[in-house]
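Lecture 7, part B: from sequences to assemblies.

Below are the input chains for today's worked example.
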Amino acid sequence: MANWTLTSKRMAEQVLSADTWLPSEMPEYAQGFMYMLGSLTASSFVALIISGIILAANGPDTWSYNGAMRFVAATHFWSVQAFFFFMMLHLWRVFFSGAWRGGRGMTWLLGAISFLIAIPTAFTGFLINGDLYSQWNAVQAKDGLNALGLGWVNLTNGGQMFGMHVVVLPLTLTLLIGAHITRVRIKSVVPPYPDVKSQSPEGATKS
Ligand code: HEM
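Predicted structure of the full complex, as structure tokens:
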């Protein structure tokens, strides 16, 4: 039977360890630009959250008309573009370096679920703009969700979408990304695939 106390203790030891968060050495391969894409995704996410908090605190009436708030809304919009752009590049990097290897399956899974949750998070953001474009999207998508038996998600209900976009989905995403980065810190980044030449029958020294 699972021993929850022991499992929680082991997890806490890993998560709270100074070696996890302040490693004294970094593998050389992890210093390349390709390994920075995850951090660029995370940085865009921080910009998204900060600009989102300012937008939510001031309320929908300020999003379109007030000069300073237009700037915050534009920052929020461009942070989304950067977030998805860097996330896609990061996804290609982790895919082509087989980053699920060496016990990194959970890191992969948490990243993949974050990606899936990021999509409705962005979509509900478009919906709460309230312009004709977002109303058209809400009605079309509501038909789709109804057909899937998910009628309780009422995309034409501005209050429900506001709650989803500013509370439920971003909090879920923050927890998932936090867990993803914690797994990366515990397991470290994946080493490159072994050199194909070194696996050839002639041996590693052949050029
Ligand atoms: C939601 C946004 C995401 C953020 C903020 C994020 C962040 C990070 C960071 C900071 C790292 C450290 C290494 C690096 O920067 O390349 C990393 C590694 C990793 N990511 Fe993500 N990631 C995200 C999405 C994803 C997705 C969609 C996948 C795959 C489906 C994924 C799979 C992995 C794996 C397997 C590693 C560990 C192995 C390695 O770095 O070589 N991540 N992630």
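Note for the exam: The chain is about 65% helix and 0% strand. Keep this in mind when comparing with the next example.
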